[in-house]
Amino acid sequence: MKNRIAVVLLSILCLLDGTLIYSIARAPNLYLNQLVHRIFSDELISRLQSIFQNVHLPGWLIYSLPDALWMLALTLLILLVWNFRLNRISILWMCIAIISGVLIECLQAFHLIRGTFDPVDLAFIFVGAFIPISISILNVKSCKTS
Prior knowledge:
Shape: globular
Oligomer: single chain
Number of helices: 7
């Protein structure tokens, strides 16, 4: 039970961190930032932005890390639903999640949805999904050898 709570908390932390990065470092007219501004006060967002105003953040942290954090959270939650067991159904849901993330990025390349295509984003999406999946695989292998 403690592990399940830890996974949920880690997922929430990843979602919040990705959203925080997005809100602090990205343009205020983006849909997510408009939603964040409705939920939280403009004063709070402005204070957070002013804290990081003079800090140079690398581009990958601003533009690609939120994608990885969101994919990590989604993959963790999918694995949690199936008790970190890799079977046809859990793998199918993880594939749907990964394909959705990749598809959203690729649709940006063809200007079918708003945003800018970036191959680094694709790499980060795969890394975000790969981390929990690889931990599950290693966990299964260690259980078999014990």
